[in-house]
Amino acid sequence: MTVFLDLGQRPDEPGPPIHGPATYPDDVVERLSADAATIIARYPQSRSALLPLLHLVQAEDSCLTPAGIAFCARQLGLTDAEVTAVATFYSMYRRTPTGDYLVGVCTNTLCAIMGGDAILESLEAHLDIAPGQTTADGTITLEHVECNAACDYAPVVMVNWDFFDNQTPTSARDLVDALRSGQPPTPSRSGALCTFRQTARTLAGLPDPDSPGAGPVGPATLAGLRFAHEHDMAAPRPGAPTDSTPDETPEQAVAAESVKDEPAPAPEAHVPARSSTTETNPDEADES
């Protein structure tokens, strides 16, 4: 029987993987090139700047476009295909225009147990949009997000990747109403909420110098540290042996030093033959 598989993007992604304008006006290229030079100068190899450059062009367009892909490629001496391969791998790079506030609701295990599913359903009904869509006024894009390691204050709603902890359907509706009215509330763990484009510039390594920075750290986040202090626990000193790592003999140290700069061995093309004992009676081999 012949089976045909349809390969490509998800059905809910419109158009080609990256779509939009193909080029930037000259004044935009000049402005972005100055920012790109600042970013690239931080890296010994220019292509290492690709991820922050993608955030830079996302700040320009609110998503990735062929113009942004081409700009990154020209700055780093890469092909458009090489940049696109990276850009389509990471979920933080958007493929469709994004509102001023990207509202993400976590429904992974703990957040779901604590009410994340109800929050997402409530926001879908309240905003009259589905995940992946943007409100008609361009203010809010709603999305379902995977775990963001904020389980200490579940259920969590993220706005432009800033945390809003201990949410309920009611508080989440109040949150998006405040965003749409132009009065963004202060996130749980940072000093102020930025727009999506401002956040993208921060992720590109070009933060607003007047940004208030991080907010307070809550007691649930510090519970492990408190326990460690109360029980006089500390991390081992660098280089100190641990219970699971025996002391290294002088001979082992010399051997390790002699091969430290050599590449790891390549995979072997053959599978070692099993012993005759294992082949004849695997149970006896396990017992031995």
UniProtKB/TrEMBL annotation:
Gene Ontology MF annotations:
2 iron, 2 sulfur cluster binding; metal ion binding; NADH dehydrogenase activity
InterPro entries found in the cross-reference section: NuoE_dom (IPR042128), NuoE_N (IPR041921), Thioredoxin-like_sf (IPR036249)
Pfam families tied to this protein: 2Fe-2S_thioredx
User: Which SUPFAM superfamilies does the UniProt record give?
Assistant: Thioredoxin-like
Q: Which residues cross the membrane?
A: none
> Keywords, A to Z?
2Fe-2S, Iron, Iron-sulfur, Metal-binding
Q: Which residue stretches belong to region Disordered?
A: 1-20, 231-288
Its cofactor is:
[2Fe-2S] cluster
Q: Which PANTHER family match?
A: NADH DEHYDROGENASE [UBIQUINONE] FLAVOPROTEIN 2, MITOCHONDRIAL, NADH DEHYDROGENASE UBIQUINONE FLAVOPROTEIN 2, MITOCHONDRIAL
Name the NCBIfam families for this protein. Answer: PRK07539.1-1 (NF005721)
What family classification does the UniProt entry report for this protein? Belongs to the complex I 24 kDa subunit family.
Q: Give the protein's recorded name.
A: NADH dehydrogenase subunit E [Rhodococcus jostii RHA1]
- Species for this entry: Mycolicibacterium parafortuitum
